[in-house]
Every structure is written in C-alpha cells, then in structure tokens.
Amino acid sequence: MGLMDFFIRPEPVSYGTAKGLNTLQINRIAADLRTARDKVNNQMAKRELLEKQREAAVKVKTEAEEQLGVFGLVQILLQKTSDYARQQVKVRIEDIVSEALNVVFGGNHKFMIDLTLRGNQPIAEYYLNDDSVITKLEKPDYDRGGGKIDIIALALRLAVGEMEGVDGPLFLDEVGKHVSKEYAPSVAYFLKEYSATFGRQIILITHNADLAEIGEVSLAVKRSQSGESEVSVL
C-alpha cells in the first residue's frame, strides 16, 4: 500500500437542500433576524427619545440659570447700597418691571420685592401681583407665570444696567421667546420706547418678525442649499 492509502476520505454531508439548510431552518433564521432588527430599531428609537429629552432638559436648565443670574444681579445691587438708597432702588426696580409687564400684557400687574435682613445682609424675595392674585417667584423654578417671567427678567436686566451706569449698546438674544405670539408687538413697542427714552442702542437677535421690524436696520440670515449663510437687508 502507498502512504496515501492510510488516510480516510470524508463522505459528503447532506443537509436536505443545495444551500445546506432546509426551508424550516431558513424561515426560523429569517424570523430571528426580523426580531433582532426590531429590537435594534426599538432601542435606537428609545435612544433618540432620551437624547431629545436630555437636550430639552439642558435647555431648560440653561434658561433657568440665566434667569437666576438676573435675579442674582438684583440681589447684589441691593446688598451694596445703603439702607436709604436700598429702598429707593427697590421702588425703582419695582416700578420699571411693573411698567414693562403692563405695557406688554395690559391689565394690572405689580412686581414686588420683599426685603429682609439676615446676618446684616438684605435678602430679596420676589412676588408678582397679577390682578390681585399674588404669586411668589420661587427659585430655582422661576417659570411660574409663563412668558411673564421673560419680561420680568428682561426688565430687571435693563433696570440693573441703568442703575449701575453700564455704557454701550445692549445685546439681547431671543427676548420674550416664551411670550405668546399675540404679545410680541407689545414686546417690540416696549423695547423701542426703552431705546428712545434712555438713548440706548439695542442689538437684537431674534426669530420673531415683530421684533425684527422695530430695528432701524434689520438683517436676515438664512442658510442656502449649499450650506453657506446668506445675509439680506429686510
């Protein structure tokens, strides 16, 4: 015998079809693949939802921090003034914010600051009297009152800037974005009157057409199909 006679050649194995799998096995594999694909799609949908919820939460957190920062500026301003001046500042801020609310929303609004001394430091608490309904503005949730909080924060920023003697143009980004559309013209009117009264230039970034129309110069920025930004004069 030759050397090759000691090796046993394996016999071919038959699996029932030319492809090696019978119809039942193929159907089972196809069903498993569909199930796995559905699970993957379901997990991807959940991930997208969680990402959107996270983005929304980050946005709310950022807006709340901005509002807290404005109220904090008022607190600092009140702390560094004397007792007599503090009362004058308090009344002036209340008047400015109340006037802004009434210009924009009408009705009878009054913004109120309650000052108390804690450890020889004045602590301010804020209230909104809306047609005799008094609401305490609690932190960190200053969202109560809807778009009215946007106007309160805007008016506070303007008031503190004037009292601190801040010079130069005023940059505003998406003011009143939570204010109902019907009140947008009133927000525009308030800003225009403020600019004229105090001689303060306002540079405003907005998606609101009513606010864009009040500017002496209004520029529209759009993205072209090629992805480049196009600027035009309104």
UniProtKB/TrEMBL annotation:
Presence of the UniProt keyword Coiled coil in the record: yes
Keyword Coiled coil: yes
Organism in which the protein naturally occurs: Blautia acetigignens
Coiled-coil ranges from the UniProt annotation: 33-67
Highest taxon of the lineage: Bacteria
The protein's name in its UniProt record: Chromosome partitioning protein ParA
Keywords from the UniProt entry: Coiled coil
